[in-house]
Amino acid sequence: MKLLPYGEKAILVEFEDLDSTVSAFIGMERNKPAGVIELVPAARTILVRVDLAKIGLRAAAEWISQVESEPSSSEPRSYETKSPEPLLVRVRYDGQDLASVAKLLGMSVESLIKWHTSTPWICVFTGFAPGFGYLAGGNKNVPRLETSRQSVPTGAVGLAGEFCGIYPRSSPGGWQLIGSTGLELWNLDRVPPALITPGVSVRFEAVSK
Amino acid sequence: MKALRVINPGPQSLIEDRGRYGFTSLGVGRSGAMDRAAFALANRLVGNPKGAAVIEILLGGAEFEAQSDLWIAVTGAWGVLQAANRPAEPNCAIRLESGDRLSIPFAEHGIRYYLAVRGGIEIPETLGSRSTDTLADLGPQPLRVADELSIGLSSIDPIPVVDVMPVRLPPQDAIELEIRPGPRRGWFGPESWSRLFSTNWIVSPRSDRRGIRLEGAALSRVKQEELLSEGAIPGAIQVSPDGVPTILGVDHPVTGGYPVIAVVTDDTVDRLAQARPGQQLRLVLATGR
Predict the structure, then answer these.
(1) Is the pTM of this model over 0.80?
(2) How far is CA A90 from CA A82, A153, A157, A180, in A?
(3) What tens-digit pLDDT sequence spans chain B (289 residues)?
(4) How far is B231 from chain A (nearest CA, A)?
(5) Do B254 and B198 share a structural domain?
(6) Is the residue at B223 inside a domain?
(7) How many domains does chain B have?
(8) Within this chain, do residues B118 and B190 fall inside the same structural domain, yes or no?
(9) Which of A6, A64, A142 has the highest number of chain B CBs within 10 A, making it the mutation to test binding with B?
(10) Nearest Cβ partner of B228 from A10, A43, A47?
């Protein structure tokens, strides 16, 4: 774990890998002291934002190191899931990049779909756009497109790095698209508006239309 | 019901308040008024609660009409207002009678005006705020011609008795921002770090509430590996692969994939709200603490 400076009101904590980031995040969320306003988790980092009226950066740094030193790695993949049942996402595997991604990973299209539908995915953090969750668990690495697309349609299912993600609405994007879903991922009339938030587990199912 | 009618919103008029807090887990950032001091002053001058929604007017050239007797105040950018066809001062409470028009000229200083109406702009909240987030496309739509805005009636303070507030106008010469090292300072060489301070930066016209792009020099990386997205805050100076620094604004993405070389201090970051395209901008190292 490394503590990196982030101005006068935040510290960026960097970890070795995704697993230690996620377990540190769970530990930190559980014991947040007054003055730590927000934790913004990402793939290898957690941004810790503080209210200086309540806690100094040095005290915050001390708290961060203590949280880490707690023995939290007894179950290495101890993601907390919010619901016992995973969210089922029906996907038409018709993405523009499906064939090239399969080739890139040295698999057939069929085995790529099998891998994608049999993987237990879990949302580890959000960002990029409201309702866009980064789903981990696939253990494959897919490079981003060299050039981002101007417009990716709503419901597109993509891969980038070690993650899978679903575009909650149309936007520019550089993820490799393997399919699409009609599931409404973001709706302000719902509480919470996002279907996929950190801790939610997701299963994909192939459908023909 | 008290109301204000939009005659002309100018290039961009948005409803903003303090913004959204605690929704980064949904991928939603702070947003809200970009110049927090001008926002707070506008509300104070008309006796509004601290977080009341106001109109953030970009550049000026906007006009409004009172549909009832109203108290208003304009802060932030500076220009000579016209209220009921008479010149009026920014930074003080102005009485408009029903049918009076308020016109806001193109700014001579700064670029973002804040128009507060006594009672606050009354519209439904989205995730606890009435702010428009231009990146997340949340909150009210930008104002359009003939929009009618309801004004709230919540209990408020009396109008403070002040003639004119002694407000420092946004500078016309160089804007100065204080910065501190960011998490990825080490990804850049020492000459890039010193270039931050020695360059006469120019505010790019391609700047908005999401980020202020700086022109003037390229910052080159010594570490070339791809950065995985990480959390961001307003004021973070991220450097894109072409070496161009962008200072993130209030509508920034919650996580970003470009390395952050430095972070603008909370005390000076609001000055960005008043940075005009083409204006000079200097970065200095923050001292103390």
Answers:
(1) yes
(2) 20, 16, 10, 8
(3) 899 999 999 999 999 999 998 888 788 999 999 999 999 999 999 999 999 999 999 999 999 999 999 999 999 999 999 999 999 999 999 999 999 999 999 999 999 999 999 999 999 999 999 999 999 889 999 999 999 999 998 667 888 887 667 788 999 999 999 999 999 999 999 999 999 999 999 999 999 999 999 999 999 999 988 888 899 999 999 999 889 999 999 999 888 889 999 999 999 999 999 999 999 999 999 986 5
(4) 5
(5) yes
(6) yes
(7) 2
(8) no
(9) A6
(10) A43
Q: Which two tokens stand for residue B270?
A: 């609001």
In which residue are the tokens 């609660």 written?
A: B49
Does B156 fall in a domain?
no
Pair A81, A122: CB distance under 8 Å = yes
Residue B167 placed within a domain: no
Tokens of A149: 């697309």
Which residue range(s) make up the domain with B49? 3-150
Residue B45 token pair: 């001058």
What are the structure tokens assigned to B105, written together?
A: 């000229």
Give the DSSP H/E element, type plus range, for residue A27: helix A18-30
Nearest to B27 among A6, A8, A126 (CB): A126
Q: Do A9 and B233 touch (CB under 8 A)?
A: yes
Min Cα–Cα distance to chain B from A116, Å: 22
Task: Mark which of B116, B150, B184 sits at the end of a domain.
Answer: B150
* Residue A199 touches partner B, C-beta closer than 8 Å: no
